[in-house]
Structures are given as C-alpha cells and as structure tokens.
Design goal:
Layout: H1 3-12, E1 15-16, E2 21-25, E3 28-34, E4 39-45, H2 52-63, E5 69-71, E6 79-85, H3 89-106, E7 126-130, E8 133-137, H4 139-158, H5 163-174, H6 177-186, H7 192-208, H8 215-246, H9 256-268, H10 270-301, E9 308-310
Antiparallel strand pairs: 1-2, 2-3, 3-4, 4-6, 5-6, 7-8, 7-9
Helix pairs in contact: 5-7, 5-8, 6-7, 6-8, 7-8, 7-10, 8-9, 8-10
The protein binds zinc ion.
Zinc ion binds near residues 114, 119, 121 and 137.
Length: about 300
C-alpha cells in the first residue's frame, strides 16, 4: 500500500490490503484506492438509491472544492465516486463523515445489502476480499462464491496449455511490428518503443490464439517479442540497404525484389554482417529492458488463483 493511503488510514482506521482501504461508515460502505496519478479515489456505496436532493447535497462537495471530481455511474444510483488530491486527508475524512452522517440521518433504517446475485440479505453482511477487491456479502453467498471459485481454479489448472497455438498467434500478430523497427532504422535510430510494440502485439496474438495465460504464457510472449526484435531489426536493416541501392543509378531500374536479394547477399559480407550484429545487440538491449519490465509486471499476476477471504 502507498504511503499516502497508509497515512490516510491512520485518520480513518479502516481495514486494508495491498490496494484498498475499506470499511463501513455508519450505513455506507467506503472503498478507497490510489490511482496511477496519485489521486485518492473514494467510492461510497449507499444502502439506498440516491434521489436528486441527495445528489445535490453530495455534489456540493465538488462546488466547495473539497473533492476534485464527484460522479456516479448514471445506471447506478447507489454509489458515488470521488477523487481527491492525496494531500487532502483531513478533507477526505470530513467529506466521508458528512456523507455518512447525512445518509444515516435521512435513511436510518436502510442497510447495505449483500452484493450476491439476486440476494437481498441485509443483516450480518461482512466485507470479503474477492481477488483482493472488497465486496459486501452475506455468509451464504460468500460460501457459494468460495465453492464457485474453487471449481474455477480446478478447471483452470486442468485446462490444456495451448502454448504452441499461443506462440503461433503471438508470432503472427508480431509481424506488423516489423514496420515499427523499419521506421526507426530508416530514421537511423533504435528505440525501446519497438520492444513495447512487439510485446503488446505478441500479448494480443497469444490471447487471440487462446494460449493459456499463466507464467509460461508470459514467458512465451516475452521470448516471442525478443525474437521479433531480432527478426525485425534484421529485416529492417536489409530493407534499408535495398532502398539505398534503389538510389544508385545503375540499380534504379531493377525491381525491388531483386534489390532485396542483393541487399540480403550484401548483408552476409563480414563487415556488414558484423555491423548488423551490433544493431541487433543494441536493439535487444534497448527493447529488452522494456520487454523485461512488462513481463515482470505480467509475471506477478499471471495464473494467480481466484481467492475469497473475509476482510
Ligand atoms: Zn447474499
């Protein structure tokens, strides 16, 4: 958990996991996380559907400048999302106290219902972390969900890997990425962005081919993108040579396919081959950092089991 959230929770005293702070405040449920721009995102779930006057009251926090953004999903009138600057912890507390106080006074009997499907239970509701996401559930729904998740985990474990198919999909989708390598080689540059593009394409292709997305899957995607950094750089350099040949008067009339063959032969000569090797090493280094960073993130989450636990 980020230090901003930790500090905030010293004021609020909620439960927490790596990502979320959460807890009941009177008869509202509050879930807080920090987004990638260090904004504190506060989601308040109400025990009733809000009416116009409630929304007006809640919107006043935005007008007063306390909350950066106040909004709710137009289809969901039982929750409101706020955005705060991370330094606003006293204001966050003040806003939450005001809202929960207002709700408790206006709807004293209303209680948060179980979020289980078709369940309207509103007594003995606890917050469960389902894959780390806090969700209010009754005991019965929590038990049913636990059984469902266990079943899904077992099925996932037993599902075939389809790794070869995944690899072929990843390779197929990576082909257009060569164009990115080519553009940068034409500009005389080698850019990390090409590694990023190959990784995204390989990732898309792997999932498209329904390869199993576990840790082996992430490895296949990474290796495919590294492989394409090499292939893409090589083809791009040869193509660059072919286009340079086109500029020579004696060769200008030759069809491009011939020039590609000449360029390919030229690329085999020792001096040129060693230059290309240098380009490839450099590309692997520059793109490789980018790919490894991505793969590292994906590796942590890929193939994780579905979990539920009482918060
Ligand atoms: Zn329930």
């Amino acid at each position: 958990m980020s230090s901003a959230l930790k500090e905030l929770n010293e004021t609020l005293g909620f439960k927490s996991n790596d990502v979320f702070l959460y807890g009941f405040q009177r008869n509202t449920l509050v879930i807080i996380h920090e987004d990638e721009n260090n904004r504190i995102c506060v989601s308040v779930r109400f025990p009733i559907e809000l009416d116009e006057s409630d929304m007006e009251r809640i919107k006043s926090w935005e007008k007063d400048g306390y909350a950066k953004k106040v909004g709710n999903d137009p289809d969901d009138k039982t929750s409101v999302d706020f955005e705060f600057k991370s330094s606003n912890k006293d204001k966050i507390k003040e806003v939450l106290e005001d809202i929960s106080g207002y709700t408790a006074e206006k709807y004293p009997e209303a209680k948060i219902q179980c979020y289980g499907k078709d369940c309207t239970e509103d007594t003995n509701i606890d917050i469960y972390e389902v894959n780390g996401i806090p969700i209010p559930l009754c005991e019965k729904c929590a038990q049913e969900l636990e059984k469902d998740l266990e079943k899904a985990n077992i099925e996932e474990e037993a599902a075939p890997g389809n790794y070869l198919r995944g690899f072929l999909g990843a390779a197929l989708f990576s082909i257009p990425g060569i164009l990115v390598s080519f553009i940068f080689i034409m500009l005389g540059k080698i850019a990390a962005i090409a590694g990023f593009v190959y990784y995204l394409l390989a990732h898309k292709g792997y999932l498209w081919a329904k390869g199993k997305y576990d840790k082996i899957g992430v490895l296949i995607i990474s290796v495919t993108s590294l492989l394409f950094v090499v292939i893409g750089t090589y083809i791009s350099v040869v193509a660059d040579i072919a286009f340079e040949m086109k500029k020579i008067d004696e060769l200008a009339d030759k069809p491009m396919s011939d020039l590609f063959l000449y360029a390919f032969a030229f690329a085999q000569t020792p001096d040129v081959a060693s230059d290309i090797k240098k380009d490839i090493y450099l590309a692997l280094f520059v793109c490789g950092i980018c790919i490894v960073l991505y793969a590292f993130q994906a590796f942590k989450s890929a193939g994780q089991k579905l979990t539920i636990k009482k918060g």
